[in-house]
Amino acid sequence: MNTRDPYTPVFPQHTDITYYDGGFGRMRSRAVGQRRPPWPEVVLVQGMGVSDYLLPGLAAFGEWTRAHLLELPGFAGSGDPPHELDVREFGSSVDQWLHAQDLGAVILVGHSSGTQVAARAAVGHPDVVGVVLASPTVDPMARTLPKLLLRWRLDSRHEPPGLSESHRPEWKRAGLRRMVHIARVHLDDALEESVARLHVPLLVICGREDRISSARWGRHLATLVSDGRYVEVPGAHTFPWLAPDAWSAPVRQLAATGTAG
């Protein structure tokens, strides 16, 4: 009988930790799973200031390919950047990391503010064969700091217990000043402009209870590329925390289209 608490996330038992020193500072990555050609590897970009909450989702990807959780300069286990970065520079840091790792074909996945970084890094990158935007930000309905904070408060009512507690050490590591800065630079970045420049298959995933990223916004993003798809899954903005399988299956389906080519 399965007696696991449904409100307790399942973390990977082991991750391989590596560090990369790039032009924007040291970046930590954590990897699970094994390479399984011809499946592309998955590279997952952290959300706004936090990374650990994506480990259950990383483990789900690791069941069918090698998957990496990439942490941006200034956050989580990465080092400090030479200056406070904007979204374009975060995207460049991911681009540099991808070139240095030489993983071959990859599916680049972003969650929340990581979608803006992932989209920028993916534009024109020769190794990116597909892009996934999970809970994409920033929805046009929330493009001021007060509106974004209000949406975050509304969404928190639908998030599972324990999530905020998991975020606090990483929020503390970043500090209030840096967290306000990262919120502002993401508010200034228009995700749709980066998405419109993509020439690879796109998958947009939104939680049905998400109060930060609307279904309307997600569907619109999927129309901006010739091969765009939209999927709704159970949960709120941070659905991968307790429902990692909800995004693993559609991402695997996207990856299968790449292997078929």
Give your account of this protein's structure.
This protein has helices at 55-61, 87-101, 114-122, 145-156, 163-174, 176-187, 191-195, 215-222, 245-260, and strands at residues 16-22, 25-32, 41-45, 67-70, 106-111, 128-134, 202-207, 228-233. With 261 residues, the protein is α/β, with parallel strands linked by helices. The protein has a single domain, classed as Alpha/Beta hydrolase fold, catalytic domain (Rossmann fold, 3-Layer(aba) Sandwich), CATH 3.40.50.1820. An eight-stranded mixed beta sheet has the order 1-2-4-3-5-6-7-8, sandwiched between helices. Helix 3 (114-122) links the parallel strand 5 (106-111) and strand 6. Helix 2 (87-101) packs across helix 3 (114-122). The longest helix is centred in the last third of the chain and has 16 residues, at 245-260. It is globular. The mean pLDDT is 92.
- The share of residues in helices is 25-40%
SSE topology string: EEEHEHEHEHHHHEHEH
Q: What's the CATH class, please?
A: Alpha Beta
Radius of gyration, whole Å: 17 Å
Q: What is the overall shape?
A: globular
Domain tally = 1
Q: What name does CATH use for the topology?
A: Rossmann fold
Largest sheet: 8 strands, mixed
